[in-house]
Every structure is written in C-alpha cells, then in structure tokens.
Amino acid sequence: MDADLFLIFSFILIIASIALGVGSAIHRRSNEHEERKLELLAKAEEAKSGRGASSEAYRKLEERVRVLERIATDRQPDLAAQIEQLRDVHDVDLQIEQRERTQ
Prior knowledge:
By secondary structure, this protein is mainly α.
C-alpha cells in the first residue's frame, strides 16, 4: 500500500514538474513575442511621425526628386542655374556628412 502511494505521488510530482517547465517556456515565449510586437509598433509610430534617421534621408531624397522633376518638366531658360544650385546643395550635404563623421 505504501509503495502504491509512493508511485502515485512520484507520478504526480513528475507530471507537475513537466507541466511547470512547459508552462514556463510558453510564458517566456509569450513575453518575448509581446516585447517584439511593442518594438515593431514603436518603430511604426516613429516612421509615421517622421522622426527616424531614415526618414530624414528619405525627406532629402524626396526633395531632390521634386526639384529634378520640376527641372525636367520646366522649359524656362534658367535650367543651368537650377542645376548649379543642385550641385551646391550636394556639396553642402557632403560637408555636413564629413562634419558628422569627425564628431
């Protein structure tokens, strides 16, 4: 009789320890998933608000494309002057990047 109780108790103890181990692993994975989801949501909100480093680069590129589109479709004689202005903007950007690298 004592041996039967010992076997039952051992069986219950083994099952409980396995269940706790599996439950702990599931809980840990769930927490990691929630953290990753929150990180992605934060990045999405940052991109929407336009505060990211990549959004600044994107804004610069978009501005240049607009200028190039205007130059390509505009038939005014000051095309050469506008192209020179673009070169000046590019030189300024290069100087800013060099300053940022040295800091």
